[in-house]
Amino acid sequence: MLLPRSPALRIALSVSIATGLYGISFGALSVAAGLDVLQTLALSLLLFSGGSQFAFIGVLAGGGGGISAMSAAALLGIRNGVYGMQVNLLLRPRGWRRLAAAHVTIDESVATATGQGDPAEQRRGFWGAGLGVFVLWNLFTLVGALAGDALGDPARWGLDGAAVAAFLGLLWPRIRARQPAAIAVVCAVVTLLTVPFVPPGIPILVAALVAGVLGFAGFGPRTEGLEPDVEPYPAGPSDGGPRSSGFGDPAARQGGSVRRPDATEGDA
């Protein structure tokens, strides 16, 4: 059996289960935000990007319109295009596989693939995590949507603001340094200042524009925010094991290199 012998597939399985279970919360919160079960399922099947999906229903839950929700989701999906360029160089998909690979290019599949040194394991990691998350995410989205639909009025259970809270929960772990924290504070202030003067959903777009301007102005590392949300290889690489993806390595993000000691230096 291939699974016990493939480290990439073992990691892909664990990542798929953990991420897929989170689809329950998305399904329930999506229904609470005003979408029905079929619309919620369509969002997971066609968009299939956790952060973008939570942003979409977060704007709707806050009273924003469809265009504002789509704009917020699209802004968060930009980095998937960056992932796509890396996946294209890594796997060289052809024909229908290129379309399939584009759809399952997410944080989990990219992180699992780039953490492997062997090309065959890279392919197994990418497809294993991508397809595994896709199947389980959509399955548990259905479970969550049916559960949320059975609850009835979300305000009665205090769930009317839960979608916004869930999106903040996704965002908070990504603020790891002073520059991103400062930008987040500035954007939060901009959002609060614009809420009384513009329609619902517009403040988040204004804040995103401010964040983009600050980012292009050169605040923070050049690759800040482009690394996958998951790091399936928390420990340092060992000889013969999976290599680091480079996204989680501070030296790699700064464009530096890590010097490994020569064999003759081991006893020095």
What do these coordinates show?
The chain has 268 residues and is mostly helical. It has a domain at 2-164. It is built from 13 helices and no strands. Helix 2 (7-21) runs parallel beside helix 9 and helix 6 runs parallel beside helix 12 (202-216). The longest helix has 33 residues, at 119-151. The radius of gyration is 20 Å and the shape is globular. It starts with a helix and ends in a 15-residue tail after the last helix. Mean pLDDT is 75; it is low at 237-268.
Topology:
Elements: H1 2-5, H2 7-21, H3 23-32, H4 37-46, H5 50-61, H6 66-91, H7 96-103, H8 107-114, H9 119-151, H10 162-171, H11 178-194, H12 202-216, H13 250-253
Helix pairs in contact: 2-8, 2-9, 3-5, 3-9, 4-9, 5-6, 5-10, 6-12, 8-9, 11-12
Helix content: 55-70%
Percent in strands: under 5%
Tell me about the biggest sheet? none
Model regions low in confidence, pLDDT < 50 over at least 5 residues: 237-268
Reading the helices and strands in chain order gives HHHHHHHHHHHHH
Supply the key terms.
globular, disordered C terminus, 0% strand, 268 residues, single chain, 13 helices, mainly alpha
